[in-house]
Amino acid sequence: MVVDMELQEAKDAVLQLIKDKEKIESTLQALKELLDSNILQNQIDMDESLVDSEGYPRQDIDVYQGIQVEDLILEFGSIHYRNFKSLTDIGKLVENSRYKVINLKIKRGSNVIVLSLTPRPWVGKGLLGCNVIPLEIVER
């Protein structure tokens, strides 16, 4: 009788471990799909460091969107060179687009790249995690 109870407890423990394993595998699969989709959309670069120079996790949102220093913004959502008046236009668009995707067309070197970003609060100032500054010399 004691052996039967121990056997049943062992079976129950094995069944619980199988359920736990299936749950973990399901979670891992969902995370893998998310990671794969973000890599394909250029939102995550597996070659970038995840920590800053002091070893702390990076907090800049633009890291996830692929924006880099010296990128030139050609289009920012509905704003482009024909209707751009000032950076206030971009600020208003960003503020009105919290948690909504904004498409960007940027020039990096001689390449034109299309990116998307979603303005949202973060630990720093603003909603983008980067500074947008005007270009003094316009290339056309």
UniProtKB/TrEMBL annotation:
This is 26S proteasome non-ATPase regulatory subunit 9. Gene3D superfamilies: 2.30.42.10, 6.10.140.1710. It comes from Camponotus floridanus (Florida carpenter ant). GO terms for cellular component: cytoplasm; nucleus; proteasome complex. Residues 15-65 form the Nas2 N-terminal domain. Transmembrane segments: none annotated. GO terms for biological process: proteasome regulatory particle assembly. PANTHER family: 26S PROTEASOME NON-ATPASE REGULATORY SUBUNIT 9 (PTHR12651). Keywords: Chaperone, Coiled coil, Proteasome. Residues 7-34 form a coiled coil. Pfam families: Nas2_N.
